[in-house]
Amino acid sequence: MAARTIVIDHGSGFLKAGLAGWNEPQMVMPSIVNYIPCRENPGPSCARRRVSLGIDVYHPDTFSHPVQRGRILNWEGVEHIWSVVLENHRQEQENSPVMVTESPMREPGDRRKTLEIMFELLDVPSILLADQLEMSLYSSGLLTGVVVDSGYGLTRVQPFQLGRPLASSRKTLEFAGQDLSSYLFSSLFKEDCNHHNLFQLETVTALQMGKCYVPQHLGEALDFLQSMPSGSDENNTYQLPDGTPVELTPLQRLAPEMFFSPQVFDLPGPSISQAVVDTIKACEASVHQLLTSHVVACGGNTLYPGFTTRLYKELTTDHFSSTKTAVWVGSNRNFSVWLGASMMAHLSTYKSEWMTREEYAESMRV
Predict the structure, then answer these.
(1) Going along 103-169, which residue ranges are E strands?
(2) Which one, of 332, 340, 266, 273, lies nearest residue 299 by Cα?
(3) What is the largest CA-CA distance in the chain?
(4) DSSP code string of 267-299
(5) What is the pLDDT of residue 341?
């Protein structure tokens, strides 16, 4: 079954999918759908519109994220994305079992709705639902440690001991990649800010990927950038798609600092490093040292230059200087959840947790 299992990790910002056993997902796409009114029968109702993936360049104001802050708000959009994924993989392998990762922020009825879509609408033979943070831990090869996952919608800190989540110590911070994007949108375009403007979207994405970084000391970095003569450093300038040069402010380049100093950006705390400290200290004292030496950083925001170095520095300098501290990072840590699921899909440990179509049908008759 392992070689044919389709693994789907559906996050707030991106969906990652592919066959179990691979070292990276074969499909990575924005978790975005758009609704376009039909020409033949325009109108606001669901029956009079069609749904498709991504952003339609002719109707850029019609797209939305069906998953927000780890919660599924638009099941129709999610179903459409999943159907595209399964259709793509079923061209090579029919009747494949499916493994879907779940957010700890899921609503009580989300699991039931996921099973309904997969079995009744998408006709999968069997399914396994797996915790996202647990899969991130396994991708690092560990069973015990603190997972620090910062993605598009959420930043989450979860300790594990021998594969068991210590749920009472979990921290969830509702600031993440989308908040960094919002800051750049509002500071760059001010009163003309429009999150559905393709020109602005392209600009913000390019800045995040090519110009932003985490300083090791905010005050020193601000002083250094502010002391530089205008136009003296090409890294401080960005050319808009229309050719207009823009000089970035120090805080725009240092925008990922919000993960370590959220108050500077008018965001609620605590910082990500303080959340790690609070999480570890909330656990039994006997596991503090083991958890401190196994901090697993994953998620797209941890790819910003300086992020993991700053996290390690703050943990060792301010909090755990007397104990061994280690921050574990992988080159594909933006895919950690999917990689962990890809590794675990075939293990006999999970054999009893798979649900078949027959078992689902039987449960619905009860």
Answers:
(1) 126-131, 145-150, 155-161, 164-165
(2) 332
(3) 73
(4) --S--HHHHHHHHHHTS-GGGHHHHHT-EEEES
(5) 96
